[in-house]
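Quick one - first record:
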Amino acid sequence: MRTRPAVSTEWTLQQFRAALPEQNPHFFLIHDRHAIFSAELDQELQAAFGVKVLHTPPQSPQANAFCERLVGTVCRECLDFLIPLSERHLRGMLREWVGHYNAGRPHSRLGPGIPDRYRVEQIRKPTRPMSTKLTVVARPVLGGLHHEYAWKRVAA
């Protein structure tokens, strides 16, 4: 039987020092109950960074599934195609993508539908004949990476 080499608390703490920026303080750290995260490490993280350590529930592999799904979607639909030039640029890209995700992107779980009910009413084609014509217009999102479509009235 092979045993894994023990990972030192100092090494793990150094990895957190390298990964967590000092100018943007973090308040929470969520991690699973893996052996690398000892109670001693949790105390050191709280003392060094002032973060509150939260553990995922035991024997709950799906606890982070929703977050991981969202992060994966952000990567696949936004960050895999665009290169942020600065933190400000990244925040702007994510702000625009989140608006698109919540108000203009169809979600298959909704059959396919859009989560924002106001936008659904805004883009639904009328069922009865109207005196004005309608045309489909596209609005580019993230510089044309994605598009949102809506009906627009055209003068007859």
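second record:
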Amino acid sequence: MAAQRAARARGADDAVLVGLGGELLEAPTANLWWRSGQTLFTPSLDLGILAGITRAVLCDLAPGLGLKVLAGVFTAEDVGAADEAFLSSSTREVMPVIELDGTPIGDGRPGASAASLQAGLRQQATGVR
């Protein structure tokens, strides 16, 4: 939570934790995602990040939306080149990320994939179609 407080002191809404080798991990209370083209990227569980329930649901929903999911080892440069980014958690669900360290991601607005995944998540939670 210290990372989150430090991020807020710098004017950011949240922090992204980074490993010693510069690899992206997760936010203090959420999983990190970004989309380039039709591929969603997220840090690998092999990095020791939380295997979030919402993360698992999004992995299941993505193919139905025409999105491939690729979990691996990535850096901030990978997110910087993305079309959109978002965080996921059971309390915040899908939360768009519009900039990273002051640099806009994509066009600097919430992306369509985050909105579609949020709708799918709500549908799963409520059972309403």
